[in-house]
Amino acid sequence: MGSLSNAVDGARRKGMILVLLGSLCALWFGIQSHLDNQAGAIDFKAYYFPTRTVIHGSDPYNPIKVLREYQAEPTSRLDDQLVRTVATHDPYPPTAFLLLIPIASLPFRAAWTVWTILNVGSLLWGVVLIWDLGADYSPQLSGALIAFLLIDSESLIASGNDACIAIGLCCIAVSSILRQKRGGFGVLCLAASILLKPQDAGLVWLYLMATGKGNRRFSMQTLIVGIVVGLPSMLWTYSVAPNWPHEMVTNLGVYTAPGGINDPSPTSGATPGSLVNLQVVFSLLKNEPLFYNLATFLICGGLILALLTIAARSNQSRRQLLLGLASLCALVILAVYHRRFEAELLTLAVPGCAMLWSERGRLSNLALGFTGSAILLGGDGTWVFFSNVIEGLHLNHPHIFLALQCLLVTLPAPIALVAVGIFFLRIYAQRSQGPELIETRES
Question: CA–CA separation, 410 vs 266, rounded Å?
Answer without folding.
Answer: 10
